[in-house]
């Protein structure tokens, strides 16, 4: 780590629902001792920082304040949540052109003051914007991370836990690929305490069981759309996912998380950012794990990568 970087300082760019709730999650869990909140609307950032700091006596010591890009010069972790929000009826990929223009300004402002941090992209479409951030920032690929399918994987575990009647933290499985419509449920790797789902959960005949699992995968993929339709935006669960990634980085945990990162030569996929189980620590991306997917999952993952590449081809980057 560079001498001017503070090991426990976090900068959050974007004081909207996701950004402010992310700071709240970081604060509540004691992740980071200094958090600067940056937004184009300075008064909004100041109001959020004030509101958060008024609860500081209830949590571990932390200094939260509103600032400008110059204040992220010594941040270890920079979390980017700013951008146009996904609207009802809009896919994540519909946001590409709007948020690409926004990110070009954000990334140039970041690199003006800090070339040594880890960048964590949360704004959707997160895989496209993670790749864009890597290209624009010229940071090493291991220090550019997207929140990826960490939230999707949590949704997956949550729905499976309800289906099988077991606590979510005892469900082991991954959603991989795009954080979006082409994401892939890695069923061949999914288990409960090392036990295959069909052996653990024989609650109905095979056809019924398979239909239930297919419904779970569809519900994971479509849950964000449903939430947006009902309440306008998603922010609680994604903030918790971002806090989990942040903890892995700041505490050097070597945690396996399905973050989005630059993929080179995995499963026939190259030069695109998407999610695979990845070891995350204080270096950012330590290692992307090449797990034994079955033939169908490899094919679907390649389709997911190809779809993302088709959108990238339309961008001027």
TrEMBL record:
Main location: cytoplasm
Record localization: Cytoplasm
Keyword Transmembrane helix: no
Binding-site positions, substrate: 86, 92, 124-127, 152-155, 234
InterPro entries in the record: L-lactate/malate_DH (IPR001557), L-lactate_DH (IPR011304), L-lactate_DH_AS (IPR018177), Lactate/malate_DH_C (IPR022383), Lactate/malate_DH_N (IPR001236), Lactate_DH/Glyco_Ohase_4_C (IPR015955), NAD(P)-bd_dom_sf (IPR036291)
Residue numbers annotated as active site: 179 (proton acceptor)
One GO term describing the cellular component: cytoplasm
Residues the entry annotates as binding beta-D-fructose 1,6-bisphosphate: 157, 172
Residues covered by the Lactate/malate dehydrogenase N-terminal domain: 9-146
Binding of NAD(+), residues: 14-19, 39, 44, 69, 83-84, 99, 122-124, 147
Regulation affecting activity: Allosterically activated by fructose 1,6-bisphosphate (FBP).
Ranges for domain Lactate/malate dehydrogenase C-terminal: 149-313
Assembly description: Homotetramer.
Name this protein carries in UniProt: L-lactate dehydrogenase
Biological source species: Halanaerobium polyolivorans
Organism placement in taxonomy: Bacteria, Bacillati, Bacillota, Clostridia, Halanaerobiales
């Amino acid at each position: 780590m560079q001498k001017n970087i503070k090991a426990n300082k976090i900068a959050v760019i974007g004081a909207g629902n996701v950004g402010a709730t992310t700071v709240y999650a970081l604060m509540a869990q004691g992740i980071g001792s200094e958090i600067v909140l940056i937004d184009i609307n300075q008064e909004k950032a100041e109001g959020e920082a004030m509101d958060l700091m008024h609860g500081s006596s209830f949590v571990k010591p932390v200094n939260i304040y509103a600032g400008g890009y110059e204040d992220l010069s010594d941040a270890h972790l920079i979390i980017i949540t700013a951008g146009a929000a996904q609207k009802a009826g809009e896919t994540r990929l519909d946001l590409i052109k709007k948020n690409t223009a926004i990110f070009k300004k954000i990334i140039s402002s970041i690199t003006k003051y800090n070339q040594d941090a880890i960048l964590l992209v949360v704004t959707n479409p997160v895989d496209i914007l993670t790749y864009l951030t890597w290209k624009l920032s010229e940071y090493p690929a291991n220090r550019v991370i997207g929140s990826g399918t960490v939230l999707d994987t949590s949704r997956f575990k949550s729905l499976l836990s309800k289906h099988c009647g077991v606590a979510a933290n005892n469900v082991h499985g991954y959603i991989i690929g795009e954080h979006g419509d082409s994401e892939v449920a890695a069923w061949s790797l999914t288990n409960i305490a090392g036990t295959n789902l069909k052996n653990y959960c024989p609650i109905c005949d095979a056809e019924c069981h398979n239909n239930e699992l297919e419904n779970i995968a569809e519900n994971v993929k479509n849950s964000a759309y449903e939430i947006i339709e009902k309440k306008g935006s998603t922010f609680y669960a994604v903030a918790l996912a971002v806090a989990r990634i942040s903890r892995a980085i700041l505490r050097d945990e070597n945690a396996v998380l399905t973050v989005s990162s630059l993929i080179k030569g995995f499963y026939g996929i190259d030069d695109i950012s998407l999610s695979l189980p990845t070891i995350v620590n204080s270096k950012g991306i330590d290692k992307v794990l090449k797990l034994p997917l079955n033939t169908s999952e490899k094919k679907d993952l390649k389709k997911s990568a190809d779809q993302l590449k088709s959108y990238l081809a339309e961008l001027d980057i």
